[in-house]
């Protein structure tokens, strides 16, 4: 078995960009067969410009959904996602801004509802991570920023979305394998993901009376722009080798799970987490 899964590479800025990545992540599964499962539904996808968010946006478009993409500043990637998704369905709405700002998060929801005439599905994917070798190296600024981007934004978006979500609405959060196994250099990031897992379970119990389902997806090592913008080139070259499948996952390998949790196929599913991690067994 090769000890390198990817070419050595690193990006100095975060959020990362898709264009410099080699090989390019796989977003669109040519074997995916849509069945109109989200026809006429309106979905807001955060972090939809690239990575898992791009794959979800494309899959939702194939299933007939109208999608709003919220992203930080990656205009080129966002426009490319918009172009790709528009081949299968309505052109996605692009909304640029920082979801860690509650006013913007609220405005993003209102823009989506106004543009498409409602909101049926909220998909929280946007996130950031900054590795540090010791707990002492995690600054107060980094700690607050990571929690604001990864966790506070979800709370803000849910608060704004609830007045629009119908009785059969769905909220899908993105947690991580790190919430369950931990990560020695991503302590604050892993902690945000643990918070998201608890948030998902608690929110589900609260919203079931309204008929709104709340679930999560917990990815393992997935090849997205976040990876080369987070880790050094040696780490990137071995990314995914620690999984039983000995490789990183592709964004396209997660998209169907987000479709399932958004549609009527999952009508009896709430408070649950789907683990997509290359064969790692998670109990909890």
UniProtKB/TrEMBL annotation:
Bias (Polar residues): 1-14
Gene3D superfamilies: NAD(P)-binding Rossmann-like Domain
Keywords per UniProt: Oxidoreductase
Bias (Basic and acidic residues): 19-34
Region annotation (Disordered) ranges: 1-34
Gene Ontology terms, MF aspect: oxidoreductase activity, acting on CH-OH group of donors
Protein name as catalogued: NAD(P)-dependent oxidoreductase
Organism: Chimaeribacter coloradensis
